[in-house]
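Sequence, please.
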């Protein structure tokens, strides 16, 4: 696996950005900035991304087994839990490919050439590559590894790395990629991600959509190893149900997504769909290389440091203007036993953002932040606030009207006069949370204009003078 004239820095940047983006997106069941496992956090993934990028960027000039082992050793020195074994196994062959082939993956012809190169390169793998890869797997010690009659990594490999992967292709998604020259990543995953981006889902939405599609189609081999094939099949069924509900745009699809997330995280996060997440990282690497993800976003996500490397000084900007607010109607249900009368408030909204200073010594451009916040509050202004996830209310949203029932009470509103919100209740607390989530997504898209991604977002929603709710989240 070698080529000449290689440019190492773009490859390292693509690796860091792909690994960071994969962990950053709030995929169901996975670690992200807002969800940690008992022994693994988002910062572990950031450390792993930085550690593995160096060895992977040199993959084009040496045997694949050496690259895999060095990347795992480097990761292990920086992060104790296994965060990226599958990612390393997938990215190592891709990083060994000529950058010109990686950049051409945007077209059908380019993907054909890339898979032909991968097929030849994988066929040239040796028994020594298998020995080194087996050593790397033992060091990483992935969950649910167990023992196998054929191809057990605790024993010496009986063939080349490709032959060993072919033995495991029926029980491991990474092995399947080696066996079919990365069909799922190159021919299925990359076009699916590109389509989601073009459909206006945004960067995070497209990543999550890709993850759901892979999980719905293939289940997850990590879940199968830990919890059994039936659990993997159930994860696929539930993911398909979320997609069929019209997520993310269809009203009412949010609860289906959140139920999948809850189910995957139950039982101590044992149903973590980590194998599909590894495939997502490989797709994002190709999306970075081929230009689907903009250079500005790549620059931001390839440079996100783990917590211990961030400066101790904290800088914040705050926006609180009289014209940033909304006048809306709502009612709150209390534990399903009481429902307020329909009434309204003149809400005021303030937002605070925390991030390192950029090269212009700014946290975030005030003008951009005010514009984003105003656009979000305008969506709520002079509308009836409708909580689609309420357990007490029955909500039917049609094309022309929205019907709400609570016991014997019934309200009907014109659809265009309603703000349909994926929240359980229209309390000031949950309105602040909803606004913060929208703000986070908009700031990510605007980040190239302002120079940094937010580390902390804080939103205040004031119902009346002197009483407000505050929601804070990691950026």
């Amino acid at each position: 696996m070698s080529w000449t004239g290689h440019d190492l820095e773009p490859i390292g940047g693509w690796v860091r950005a792909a690994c960071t983006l994969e962990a950053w997106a709030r995929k169901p069941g996975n670690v992200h900035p807002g969800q940690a496992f008992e022994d693994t956090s988002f910062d572990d993934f950031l450390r792993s991304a930085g550690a593995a990028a160096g060895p992977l960027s040199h993959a084009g000039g040496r045997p694949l087994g050496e690259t895999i082992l060095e990347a795992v050793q480097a990761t292990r020195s920086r992060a104790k839990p296994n965060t990226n074994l599958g990612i390393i196994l997938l990215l190592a062959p891709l990083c060994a490919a000529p950058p010109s082939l990686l950049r051409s993956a945007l077209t059908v012809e380019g993907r054909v050439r890339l898979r032909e190169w991968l097929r030849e390169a994988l066929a040239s793998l040796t028994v020594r590559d298998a020995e080194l890869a087996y050593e790397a797997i033992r060091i990483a010690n992935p969950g649910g590894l167990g023992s196998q009659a054929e191809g057990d990594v605790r024993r010496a490999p009986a063939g080349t790395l490709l032959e060993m992967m072919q033995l495991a292709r029926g029980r491991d998604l990474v092995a399947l990629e080696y066996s079919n020259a990365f069909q799922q990543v190159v021919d299925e995953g990359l076009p699916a991600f590109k389509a989601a981006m073009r459909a206006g889902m945004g960067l995070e939405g497209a990543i999550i959509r890709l993850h759901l599609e892979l999980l719905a189609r293939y289940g997850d081999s990590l879940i199968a190893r830990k919890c059994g094939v039936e659990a993997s099949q159930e994860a696929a069924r539930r993911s398909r149900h979320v997609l069929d509900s019209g997520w993310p745009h269809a009203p009412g699809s949010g609860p289906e997504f959140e139920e999948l997330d809850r189910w995957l995280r139950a039982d101590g996060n044992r149903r973590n769909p980590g194998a599909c997440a590894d495939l997502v990282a490989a797709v994002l690497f190709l999306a970075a290389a081929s230009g689907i993800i903009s250079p500005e976003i790549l620059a931001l996500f390839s440079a996100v440091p783990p917590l211990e490397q961030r400066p101790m000084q904290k800088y914040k900007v705050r926006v609180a203007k009289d014209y940033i607010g909304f006048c809306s109607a709502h009612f709150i249900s209390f534990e399903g036993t009481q429902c307020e009368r329909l009434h309204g408030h003149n809400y005021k909204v303030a937002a605070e953002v925390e991030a390192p200073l950029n090269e212009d010594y700014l946290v975030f451009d005030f003008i951009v932040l005010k514009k984003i916040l105003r656009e979000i509050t305008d969506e709520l202004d002079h509308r009836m606030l409708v909580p689609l996830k309420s357990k007490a209310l029955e909500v039917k949203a049609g094309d022309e009207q929205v019907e709400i029932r609570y016991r014997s009470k019934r309200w009907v509103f014109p659809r265009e006069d309603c703000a349909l919100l994926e929240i359980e209740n229209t309390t000031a607390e949950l309105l602040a949370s909803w606004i913060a989530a929208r703000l986070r997504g908009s700031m990510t898209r605007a980040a190239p204009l302002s120079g940094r991604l937010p580390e902390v977002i804080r939103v205040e929603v004031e119902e009346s003078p002197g009483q407000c709710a505050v929601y804070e989240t990691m950026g």
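The chain has 18 helices and twelve strands.
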